[in-house]
Design a protein that fits this description.
With 226 residues, the chain is mainly alpha-helical. The protein is built from eleven helices and two strands. Strand 1 and strand 2 form a beta hairpin.
Length: 226
């Protein structure tokens, strides 16, 4: 039993590795069972259990009569996605504030010349999209700017957490723009602070921007009185 369990775990790790690395891209069909048996050097039952494990984790799905397809490269993204489906906008903004405040602070201390140049480019791209009234382009540029700040922070765990929330954050950014009265220069202060290496100002800029959105949303009811 111990040996069989080890074979299954090894097969799962091998399959997961090919998905996470991008060798088997999201949306692609993984090899059929006979090919996986040959690839992994294990029996059919081991392959079936390994694939079923990945189905349970949400990385792949079986489609009747078609095969098994890659859904995601991250089990964390799948798990977080399930939690975020019914999340309130207030909840998302509060999580964003927790992550983005620290990202801004750290990015101001660690950003390199490449990140500085990219932030300035994205600031201008965001402003241009705002002035053009192009909502899709505006959301894309705004999200890209925030992700650039997180990358500039140089903390791989923070980046992983943020990247696995990116769909919910993108939806929140779009939601915020519906009632947003900020102009095309809304993120200028944040970008300037990070480029200048001013961590305290980066924190203030991020807190002020997101807190304004929170002020316009109702507080959740006290769970104890619900």
């Amino acid at each position: 039993m111990t040996r069989r369990t080890g074979l299954i775990e090894g097969a799962v790790a091998e399959l997961r590795g090919r998905i996470v690395s991008g060798e088997w891209a999201v949306g692609s069909r993984i090899p059929a069972e006979p090919a996986l048996v040959e690839l992994l050097g294990v029996g059919r039952n081991t392959v079936r259990e390994a694939v079923q494990s990945l189905v349970h984790s949400g990385l792949v799905e079986r489609r009747q009569g078609s095969g098994t397809y890659v859904l995601s490269t991250s089990e964390l993204a799948v798990s977080m996605g399930r939690h975020m489906v019914d999340a309130r906008q207030r909840d998302v903004i509060e999580v964003r504030r927790a992550l983005e405040v620290e990202a801004g602070r750290t990015a101001a201390r660690r950003r390199g010349s490449t990140e500085a140049a990219e932030l300035l480019r994205l600031r201008d791209e965001r402003a241009a999209a705002h002035l053009a009234g192009d909502m899709d382009r505006l959301v894309e540029a705004d999200l890209a700017l925030h992700r650039c700040v997180v990358r500039a922070a140089g903390n791989p765990l923070l980046r992983t957490l943020y990247d696995n929330l990116v769909d919910a954050i993108g939806e929140n950014i779009r939601f915020n723009f519906v009632s947003d009265t900020h102009g095309p220069d809304a993120h200028d202060g944040l970008v300037e602070a990070i480029v200048a290496g001013d961590a305290d100002r980066a924190v203030r800029e991020t807190e002020d921007y997101l807190s304004e959105f929170l002020d316009g949303l109702p507080e959740p009811r006290d769970a104890a009185s619900a």
